[in-house]
Structure of UDP-N-acetylmuramoyl-L-alanyl-D-glutamate--2,6-diaminopimelate ligase:
Amino acid sequence: MKLNQVFNGAPDWEFTGITCDSRKVAQGFVFAALKGTVSDGRDFIQAAIDKGAIAILTDERDGQWEVPVIKVAEPRLEFAKAAAAFYGKQPETMVAVTGTNGKSSTVDFLRQIWTELGFEAASLGTLGAVAPSGAVELGHTTPDPVAIQSTLAILANEGVTHCAMEASSHGLAQYRMHGVKLAAGAFLNLSQDHLDYHKDLGDYFDAKMKLFSELLPEGSPAIINADSDMKDKVLEVAKKAKLVPFTVGWRGDHLWIDEITPRNTGQNLRLQWETAEGDKETIVKLPLIGEFQALNALAAAGLAMSIGADPEAVFAAMEKLKGVKGRLELVAETASGAGIYVDFAHTPDGLDTLLRAARPHAVGRVICVFGCGGDRDAGKRPIMGEIASKFADEVIVTDDNPRSEDPAAIRAAIMAGAPEATEVAGRAEAIKEGIRRLKKGDVLMIAGKGHETGQTIKGVTLPFSDHEAALSALAELKVEYK
Ligand SMILES: CC(=O)N[C@H]1[C@@H](OP(=O)(O)OP(=O)(O)OC[C@H]2O[C@@H](n3ccc(=O)[nH]c3=O)[C@H](O)[C@@H]2O)O[C@H](CO)[C@@H](O)[C@@H]1O[C@H](C)C(=O)N[C@@H](C)C(=O)N[C@H](CCC(=O)O)C(=O)O
Ligand SMILES: Nc1ncnc2c1ncn2[C@@H]1O[C@H](COP(=O)(O)OP(=O)(O)OP(=O)(O)O)[C@@H](O)[C@H]1O
Ligand SMILES: N[C@H](CCC[C@H](N)C(=O)O)C(=O)O
Ligand SMILES: [Mg+2]
């Protein structure tokens, strides 16, 4: 591809790749020098040139270099567009999901629904790129533009026609997915998270709303969870962007829940939806527990329906949904009838939602093991402690990716909101303690790491899985289970 096909006024030279990381530059690359939160990409321009960069994309600050410099007001945006142009291909139908909690679940459910409808479908996000050909880790929920665009091109070349991706607030704020052409988008919910990065909740909300205000083309469907207390504000943004709202949830106008009847291993949803011939009703036997899972499945169904899928076929597909790895995942049931679950709740609202969902399944007590991530929103810690104390009968506070921070200090911050809790250093030990306490009819919720396969301590990631830690503890404690 030639530089002037992507950048106005640039020379008529072939370039061989594009990156924002000087360490990844190869001969013939464009280097996007971006101002970051830790360093400034402009400090690496010379290093990039030395490695073979033939042009630099950067902001309008002064600077002289021996290769052409393309100066733009918003280099991250132009970088994303250039990556899209360079890789040149994406699945025909792309949708994106934003919200504090439930994105991974929703995109996974939508991939499953599309697959059931006969499409070659993929999902992209925290769980990686998941496609018929297999799964590939991406490292981020919304990875950088080159990772997004190269992955989408691979998927399209493999024949994937439908792809659902997660839009994180970091991703939206940093224009990581501004080169993706979307057919629809969904907003799930907003609650506290990432206030280490966003200056306040308003700023966090504005970042999420870029999906509607900057990414979705006019006239495209905007799926909105009508039960979110942000609904009115989101509708306002959607209308201003000339999108077509499609609201879902208990209070949805287009696809809504009338009644939920919990079953042992699932729940029956009495749903209604709007059609040209009037409202219709159906009962979907969802094979997943927890109201929040029903709401995520409904958002996925709304996305599929809003871009033309047959509602009846979508509802039939919902009856076949499989749980998403590490989301309310049943690890074992002890011989005395206590359930051990792993879940990815890592925000105050997520933990609140999870522990409420656990209650109907506990004849006995709800025991919760959790911690909070280091180098992330510290404000969440005492709040999550308080929530755990309020909704669980017993709380064990432990470690969850302390990263560069002192694990004991993080635990202390959580304990400030949960003075009655037991503090156990080391996650494996804490899980063991949770299992040791289990009696007939209890439920153990191990929250915060879900699908994760590592624990990051002082910058080093050691293999760790809540699922495996629970199974090892059962074996060590000689507890029988199935
Ligand atoms: C806060 C944040 O989002 N940081 C991301 C951001 O880094 P940054 O722009 O601040 O980078 P920086 O380190 O200051 O460096 C500035 C620039 O210099 C470049 N550089 C740096 C060093 C060098 O030798 N050469 C070089 O060219 C860097 O590549 C970068 O372009 O852009 C980088 C490249 O895309 C990301 O890797 C990095 O993610 C960091 C590692 C991270 O932890 N991000 C997390 C918080 C994140 O993005 N999470 C979200 C949300 C999670 C969720 O809620 O689901 C996600 O989507 O995963
Ligand atoms: N709709 C929801 N409302 C509230 N909490 C939810 C909802 N959906 C999921 N959760 C909780 O949040 C956890 C994470 O869910 P999921 O991984 O789907 O969210 P996510 O938005 O992708 O998270 P991340 O920001 O890490 O990518 C779940 O394990 C559950 O505890
Ligand atoms: N995408 C989330 C994941 C948090 C998971 C939790 N285990 C932690 O490490 O804090 C984040 O980066 O905030
Ligand atoms: Mg996710």
